[in-house]
């Protein structure tokens, strides 16, 4: 199952990716892109234009991809290692990085005069352009017109970043980060099966202040919740993230609500819950807060060996949601240190959940703070699915698949009823 799940959700694994490199200074960054793609299990074939070879040698790309690099059209046709199999037939996706104004103009104008432009013209698979150029070139009406024309014809683009450019200018034109490029490539492969859903995810820890400098919190990094946000968004859902304090970069394309305490999280969630079709509570919420509100730092008193902190119960947000959820979908997590399944099932019933994700937080390498997780997803109908140790993004896919099944069941029942 581990291998099967990984294959299913690791979008780039076993994919044939063609990286077209054109002549821009950002070509050196593409060496790292090729390395990462190969590490993610993609079979990468690099095609270089003549100008690209002024910046980086084919040997660099050949070493990193493990495949011969194509730059001479007729050399290939004469029978290179991949023989007569046309690269464009082999490809699952083509990415052109950096994409110069020249290659954009050529493709928009229907010119096919070298291997890369010929292949782009011949392919039926998605083509992603990653433009990088001088700001004035980027802003030129001709380049923008060419981009519009290509977009109209179904070509994909990532906007360049703004910053210092190699030519000494500052402005828009830098090649976007490799993370952004890979995210977009994975996005292109992802089936948009959550379009129409509005999903709220809570993530990270809450903090409860004891005095102005001390607080009670927990080890949640937010990674599990943020992975759910990323994958739900990538699968086409409209997403609201309610997040406690974390060091993670805020995801783009989603509504982000920042909170600190459990009470703030409760208010943020309850204000927005009515407009959501699915709510997933991955946050680690403090059950208690300090009874006293102190405006000054708690001081040690001479001779005092013990301090007793009085605590109040925090609202149980999940339980409150369970009372208003009706025919929408509610998913809770259960972070347990003992009796994993039993305790998770209790929470499922008590809090009126559709699904509970049972997380053994005593195991090393999963749960709090780690990049991976291993969980058991239990449904209100008593079905349990063990998800072996996988990356949190892969676990997020499996959870969202389970959510999809619940949506289907609940909506079918509703349709049958009326
Ligand atoms: O953030 P990471 O480092 O990636 O770690 C992930 C995780 C371990 C935090 C995550 O996988 C997880 O298990 N989240 C739930 C943590 C938790 O608080 O579990 P719990 O069993 O105490 O609470 C059960 C459920 O009730 C949770 O959905 C929780 O969000 C919710 N709850 C709890 C208390 C409270 N006052 N209000 C709540 O809504």
What is the total number of structural domains?
2
**Tally of helical segments:** 15
Which range does the strand content fall in?
Answer: 15-25%
Uncertain parts: none
So what's the overall shape? elongated
Sketch the major β-sheet. Answer: 8 strands, mixed
Taking the alpha carbons of the first and last residues, their distance comes to 39 Å
Count every beta strand, where a strand is a DSSP E run of 2 or more residues: 19
- What is the name of the CATH architecture of the largest domain? 3-Layer(aba) Sandwich
Q: Can you tell me the CATH superfamily of the largest domain?
A: CoaB-like
Structural commentary:
The mean pLDDT is 93. 36% of the residues lie in helices and 23% in strands. The chain has helices spanning 2-9, 27-39, 58-65, 73-77, 87-90, 101-108, 115-122, 135-139, 141-152, 178-189, 223-234, 262-272, 317-324, 340-350, 392-417; strands at 16-21, 43-48, 93-99, 127-131, 156-157, 161-164, 170-174, 198-203, 208-209, 215-216, 238-243, 255-258, 278-281, 288-290, 311-313, 329-336, 355-360, 372-379, 384-391. The protein folds into two domains: 14-189, Flavin prenyltransferase-like (Rossmann fold, 3-Layer(aba) Sandwich); 198-294 and 308-417, 3-Layer(aba) Sandwich (Rossmann fold). The chain is of the alpha/beta class and 418 residues long. Strand 1 (16-21), helix 2 and strand 2 form a beta-alpha-beta unit. It has an eight-stranded mixed beta sheet with strand order 12-11-8-13-16-17-18-19, with helices on both faces. A five-stranded parallel beta sheet has the order 2-1-3-4-5, sandwiched between helices. It binds ligand PMT.
